Amino acid sequence: MSEGVREMRFFSFHLMPYPGLPDDYDGPAWVTCPNSLFDPGVGTQIYNRYLDELILAEELGFDGVCVNEHHQNAYGLMPSPNLMASILARQTSRVRIAVVGNALPLYDPPTRVAEEFAMIDCISGGRLIAGMVVGGGPEYYSSSINPAHARERFQEAHDIIKRAWTEPGPFEFIGKHYKLRYVNSWPRPVQQPHPEIWVPGVGSLETIEFVARNRYAYMGIPYFHIDVFERMFKMMREACQREGYEVDPLQLGWLVPIFVAETDAEARRQYEEHFWYFVRRLLPGINISPPGYTSIRSYENILKGAKTFALNLKTWDEVQAGQYAIVGSPDTVTERLTENLRRLGPGNLLGLFQLGTLPADATRRSLELFGTEVMPKLRATFPAGQPVLGAPAAVA
């Protein structure tokens, strides 16, 4: 994917969370959260509101928007992000549309992913970023798919999709998990040989090695201390070096909650309660890991950062110290993002501008302040052709 060091890209990422869990519900938001708690009237309102917030990102000058896939939970109401992406493909004209991503092992046959992604790429005129993911641990409980087969199914599904985009059909695919007599996907994507491919991760070594080997892009999932991102991106750079090349900043993406208000005090006042709703009501259950889902060596690596997972946060001071969310005035947000981008070195900044119960007016104002006062300064600080990663700090 590398074409040299290009300009940093800014994306507005949406989880589409459910904001209406009742106060007396104290169970997990995943797998067993009763769907009787879902109010379709609220759903009608927030789906359309959330789409408007993503469309607004184009008007404000963002480079792209992101949607993602989760099932049977209150954390994110997008069991089919491709539906959202197809709407955005029609309602926008310039921004890249990143689906981050489709959980490939859950699709049978996976040619459906090749077909739907190609549809979005055609509708948008070649603006799709095709995200592919193994899927979270809760999804394997919800789908009853053997978690020990997750990695094998992901690899086979990936191979089928990529071949469906790049090889003339029909052809036959016979694997361990998928046996397809005729692979002959219609339509084919506009972007050739295929759309840009992103893979999100939380520290699995197999995922980092897969991304480096295929020269895709690795998106670091939030809710960890900034030290964890630094270590993961360092591992990605080293994995690329083992493959014989230097990582392009556009192969790295940092996903982080961002909120901007007129002053630091006002930003915290407007934002903090909604952040805690997200952490204390929507995150519980996200970290369950079924047996066999993760290899031992990746599990050991993930455990290094487990203590810093956001579910363990108790105070706002901890949130600020670990950079779990970048919150403040335009000057403060610009300063903190600049510092962390220099530290991490990504070429893609993915901002979560709506989180938990954050209302529409506050979300819109934050997006506007970011688009008009923060993003232009960051573009000037990180111009095209210049590295993002800062020089290592001097050792005393």
Features:
396 residues; alpha/beta; 11 strands; globular; disordered N terminus
Walk me through what this model shows:
- This protein is α/β, with parallel strands linked by helices and about 400 residues long.
- It is about 45% helix and about 15% strand.
- It is built from 12 helices and 11 strands.
- Helix 3 links the parallel strand 3 and strand 4 (about 130-135).
- Mean pLDDT is about 95; it is low at about 1-5.
Tell me the series of helices and strands, N- to C-terminal.
Answer: EHEHEHEHHEEEHEHEHHHEHEH
- What value does the average pLDDT take? 94
Helix and strand composition category: alpha/beta
Q: State which percent range the strand residues make up.
A: 5-15%
Please give the order of strands in the largest beta sheet: 1-2-3-4-7-8-9-11
Calculate Rg over CA atoms. Answer: 20 Å
Portion of residues in helices? 40-55%
Largest sheet: 8 strands, parallel, barrel
Give start-end ranges of low-pLDDT stretches. 1-5
Span between N and C termini? Answer: 38 Å
Describe the global form. Answer: globular
Number of helices: 12
| E-strand count | 11
